[in-house]
# Entry
Amino acid sequence: MTHDSADTDGATDETHTDTISEYEAQLNAVLEDIDETPADESDVSLELPTLGLNRRDFMKAGAAAGVMGSLAGCTSLAGSTNSGSENTPHSSSGDVPSHIVPPGEHDEYYGFWSGGHSGDIRIYGLPSMRELTRIPVFNPEQAKGYGFDKKTSDMLEEAGDYTWGDSHHPSLSETDGKYDGEYLYVNDKAHGRVARVNLTYFETDAITNVPNVQSVHGCCIQSPDTEYVFANSEFRTPLPNDGRDINNPDKYVSLFTALDPESMEVLWQVEVDGNLDILDTDKDGRWAIASAYNDEEGVEIEEMTKNDRDFVKAFDVPAIQKAVDAGNYKEVNGVPVVDGTKSSSLNKGDNPIVRYIPTPKSPHCVEVEPNGKYAMVAGKLSPTVSIIDIEKLGSASDPKDTIVGQPKLGLGPLHTTYDGRGHAYTSLFIDSQVVKWDIETAVNSPKKSEDAILGKIDVHYNPGHIQAIQAMSTEPTGDWLVVLNKLSKDRFLPVGPIYPDNDQLLYIGNDKDNETGGMELVSDHPVYPEPHDAIFASKDKISPAKTWDAADYEGEKEYVKESNSRVERIDDETVEVYTSVKRSEYGLRDFTVKQGDEVTLTATNVEGSQDIVHGIAIPEHNVHLALAPQDTRQATFTADKPGVYWVYCTYFCSALHLEMRSRMIVEPRE
Amino acid sequence: MTHDSADTDGATDETHTDTISEYEAQLNAVLEDIDETPADESDVSLELPTLGLNRRDFMKAGAAAGVMGSLAGCTSLAGSTNSGSENTPHSSSGDVPSHIVPPGEHDEYYGFWSGGHSGDIRIYGLPSMRELTRIPVFNPEQAKGYGFDKKTSDMLEEAGDYTWGDSHHPSLSETDGKYDGEYLYVNDKAHGRVARVNLTYFETDAITNVPNVQSVHGCCIQSPDTEYVFANSEFRTPLPNDGRDINNPDKYVSLFTALDPESMEVLWQVEVDGNLDILDTDKDGRWAIASAYNDEEGVEIEEMTKNDRDFVKAFDVPAIQKAVDAGNYKEVNGVPVVDGTKSSSLNKGDNPIVRYIPTPKSPHCVEVEPNGKYAMVAGKLSPTVSIIDIEKLGSASDPKDTIVGQPKLGLGPLHTTYDGRGHAYTSLFIDSQVVKWDIETAVNSPKKSEDAILGKIDVHYNPGHIQAIQAMSTEPTGDWLVVLNKLSKDRFLPVGPIYPDNDQLLYIGNDKDNETGGMELVSDHPVYPEPHDAIFASKDKISPAKTWDAADYEGEKEYVKESNSRVERIDDETVEVYTSVKRSEYGLRDFTVKQGDEVTLTATNVEGSQDIVHGIAIPEHNVHLALAPQDTRQATFTADKPGVYWVYCTYFCSALHLEMRSRMIVEPRE
# Structure
């Protein structure tokens, strides 16, 4: 098994003579060492860097697939022992601010986690890392009545009527490059969807089922003023996917989609070569930059990883908009689709709408640094990060010349974040480490990656996304960083065969000349599968409402006063029930319907006090509404079984909460 | 509005002359004081006790309803200000062990939280209070594929096919009075259901839809050896609830149900007067003791709270079993229903099957102390806890003589827990406090409740359940206590109109002669709505499996090896697809079906390594399976749309996770 020297246009100018078997042998030696000293896992990870970066070169990806598969997860490192981790030392130099938020005090930052295949957004406080709430997005969720009341169930139904989703990349709306606290946008990788969360009410208020795409992966707003929301479709499918071309993979396509952030309507799409992956934009409203893989356009893993390179796509957004405005598109399912493939006439000449920038095989992510100068493309299968000079995207005649640095950082680099002091932090999936490095040194000393590396710290285990506070905006704070580790193995009490992930909090406020470059591991946090990414904002950026404003929904729904609680029979099989809700009391003490009636229940929480939420549960009818103060919700159900059903309040609201009930009487029909 | 002196047989021997208006005036005075000093809320609560317990007597409940409703939640305390809480001092005497669990170390205890109307069980580590995982129970949940794979979706369908549930009271199986780590049982208040969680796999493995009942509220195992699981139906409904007696509330009934903990079959039910509420058992296998309200058997709140007293029910389990064995029951929907009403012949004579013990109106809970001597019944609308001497349940000729103490503790006592050192801790919902008191002093000095009170501590706000470590077993540890507060108001960063609850951790290991009796508030934890109750076990008590054991399911499902991945066409409209799953690779790289086919997908995770979980997602088909190592799951769906669909892995499993895919090709039909 020979590891050919890599042919990576613009990727690196060193030669690569390592073989996979040599690489394997080195790793095996490390693993054998580990087996002999299982008691202290910290030693294990500290050993790994001493293998030397110069021996961890770019692997020819196709041949590496098997090795990566067997190594990935580093399962052998932990094996099935559980005792090792308890001896892991927890060093703290004493100059790290406390991450403990005492009772009654508030966190400094909001964290917005995407819940992965839980489909939700989770809100954390930092630095305490306490979960403040969850916002159901693609997942019907009973506690908040999401997908149970008419408004949200209609929204989910219109967005494809899917019972789940896979939320990956949350993006906060910006004004002038700063988070403005209005909205959060997030993709659904399980379907071609993009959702918007309203940050006044902390509720999902729109979901768009994007035509022509099966899986939205990368997703972000356009910096600095949220003029677009962009969405990458990852999976290549026939266009449209209606049964044509099913056995003709050459005709499958991947699309870059632009949405209107207000209306959430799809504006246009751009067809490209390969599978699009993750996405970020520059800070000036021109470039959207996407990682991509499978330039081979294969359908099996060996085909997808056959070549040595892939191409990052840089979308010239004003140029695309101009093409659309000029009618240079075909329309598919009502959407203008612009040809952005390499062979497109729109990509010929001096002003291509999409630039194809060669990088080592299967890069994973693109993150633009806060000052907008560089975009970092982590290598995943390559130990490098490719540094793209954004200014050169518009000027370089050869796209590969936009890559101005390519430091070798370690095995499995996936994501990069920033502290605003010129440092980048990259997660190393296979090494289970975070590497801190100096950006300008990496650019200016391209031959000596070691000079750029400021330190490494072990994380536990197999980190995916990492994110520092406000690093996706122009205002990074440079104090805390969260590493989202995919595996936790022995870090927590066991909870059965499905393990939690492990989010780790690092303090990065101290730059030091030590092994970690000053990074300190502060705390471990088990998390329900599978938080994917996170984005953080200062508490001053977010101003949620404490109650609903009835005026917000005027005309859309009926506010039910106590005095107006009533039952209206529409026809022999249709009944409308209206009830107010307040502590201890529903406006309707009871109501009678007939077996088989379709009942529409409308309920208003007439209270004005914060934190006084009421529920309406109807046993055996799949009805549960959650009513915050001044909110009105509706549910429609069929009263199909005669009998007595006790409507009760699910939010513990008063000392007489238990007695807070209404009685639905369903009269038998003949 | 006159507050009559309470007529509470056996409830208290003091006279009560306070009026509601007097009570209201006192509270208003307190609230006015609070308005003047909003900056420090700790002062607010500290003021409250100085009102004097002697002025906070038993309130005639019917008349009190309005007051309680308006006071409940103590909304006026916080109003809409947000600034006050940040000044709350956090006192720590320095002799409290750290609740921080450093990275790599394990918690000491498991906590099992019921998720309330989230319908799940949540697993926490204590003292860190980190959520380790969640176990979906009554809620279909996508991340673990619960309700998505055949096994769990069939279980949910057979248990009523409801889309949600309301889990309230978790109970751990015991052997010899000690938690044995086998099972956890929990009720569904939204329906008449009881579920069992298997603590080897941390997965719900049985749900029983109990006949004849609409809402199971109280639920617990029988101590000391889990010979039964008991379930109280709270709502009174016609028997059976099939359209008969709908307007005849006198004929509505509430039932006490016994289930077999192994088969989860319903064994028998006992009809009683009033609405059953919460439940605990003695430690000797004889008595199950239930709180109850609405002895009036009214249907509206004023009717339910008209009288001054209610009756705790003590079920003599062996006597009931004897009556069942002797055929003294009627059968309803296949279940033997024994008459346990006051007027039943089985309750005449010296050995009634159910004893009716008078207490002040609407008591809330029953908790038996760890040594099995006393059962505490918190007053809710009465400021007292009634102490039942369990030994006297079998000997006292008058049931009221079983009450051997009734200390007045504060406003809104709801739940009691224990430290094993002779102290009880009772949550005070309206006072927003926990009171620590000495049990034997309360029994021996019945006229002077003050002597029994050892201290009070403010909690934030409106506590429901409280629970100390292993206090429901015979092995309390007496170190940590969790208070589940229903409102959090200004304790956390705001997250929109639906607030988190607030679980607070107290250290109770120090007995001190100070204001709090040594209790110290350690940490605040926001929680998603609406954790209802919790139960804690030492980490040594629980031994979860790290992978599935394929042998456990032999015969029930097919283990799909890599070599056996295949597609089998059953008939023109039915296809069976079998695939193995391992890192980077599905056994089937692609498979083809025809439009309209019913497809049954069977998949096995063939890996043996812990923490290597794989998902199977099929976009646009509502398919998501979560496969832990050695697990096999099935999903059935209709391939209704022609096209190409990319099956992908949702658990980030390796560096080539992104490339881990299969391709479902759906051929168009003519």
